[in-house]
Amino acid sequence: ADGVDIGPYAVIGEEVILHPRVRVGPHAVVEFAEVGEACQIHAGSFVGTAPQDLKYRGERTRVILGPGCVVRECVTLNRGTAASGVTRIGARCLFMAYAHVAHDCHIGQEVVLANSVAVAGHAEIGDGAVIGGMVGLHQFVRVGKLAMIGAGAMVPLDIPPFTLAWGDRAKLNGLNLIGLRRRGYSAEHISALKRAYRDVFSSSLPMADLLEQMSQQPQSDPVKELIAFLQKSSRGFCRPATAGGPEDKKTSDPS
To answer: Burial, 103: exposed, middle or buried (Cβ in 10 Å; 0-12, 13-18, 19+)?
Structure first.
């Protein structure tokens, strides 16, 4: 395609589509992949290589990388397995050095994986999520839209959208207020999310009953998204470290 730049000693293997203005750095390997327009794949990275799955038997699977992604040094993005056939990554994501995305993951748009993040197979990460350095995500974990996970966390359960989490094992620590404001969420939507977070994590009702009750009430779109995410969880989801909720002094709105 027009404007593609391939560096020295890079290897472009089988079944690769490089869209215009893709840059592939020296010693990078790309195979069984579709790489979107204006993506940058830096030195020593591996895109579309075989999944690290003992059940894999050489099926013709692939990875799809959306436009504008930046893949820094020594990142590994494995292709899918027979389970889904594809590892799918949205537009304008940033993968910092040594990050790893395993087979069959689905990653949204504008996601940031910091250095040495390890995302296990079949995980899902929502749009705009930020995953701190050296975080480990368990297989099949879901990370919601605009969630932010602090460095070094071990994540065995789903992380709800719009929340902050950190620790071993990860616990919630309120809402990602700065991220919400930066993305243009209104004060009304943020206040509604605060109320919903407090209701979800302080109620004495069984969780399934509470979520069903909340889903039947008029809610803002972000709250509807939060409720739907929690209702869909099959692994279970992380809970707060304390009962303080979003008004806890560690995560309260500074304004």
So the answer is: buried
Matching fold, domains 5-177 and 179-247:
no
Give catalytic residue positions: 103-104, 121
Strand order across the beta sheet in which 148-149 lies:
5-6, 23-24, 40-41, 70-71, 94-95, 112-113, 130-131, 148-149, 163-166, 171-175
Q: For 5-177, which CATH class?
A: mainly beta
The per-residue pLDDT for range 58-92, each reduced to its tens digit, is: 999 999 999 999 999 999 999 999 999 999 999 99
* Residue that the structure tokens 């009304």 belong to: 188
The full set of domain ranges for the chain reads 5-177, 179-247
Instruction: Give the global pTM.
Output: 0.92
The angle subtended at Cα 148 by Cα 146 and Cα 153, nearest 5°, is 150
Of 1.20.1180.10, 3.40.50.1980, 2.40.30.10, 2.60.40.10, which CATH number belongs to 179-247? 1.20.1180.10
User: SS3 letters for 79-106?
Assistant: CCCCCCCEEEECCCCEECCCCEECCCCE
CA angle 239, 242, 248 (to 5 degrees): 110
For residue range 188-226, list pLDDT tens digits in order. Answer: 999 999 999 999 999 999 999 999 999 999 999 999 999
Phi, psi angles (nearest 5°) of residue 195: -65, -45
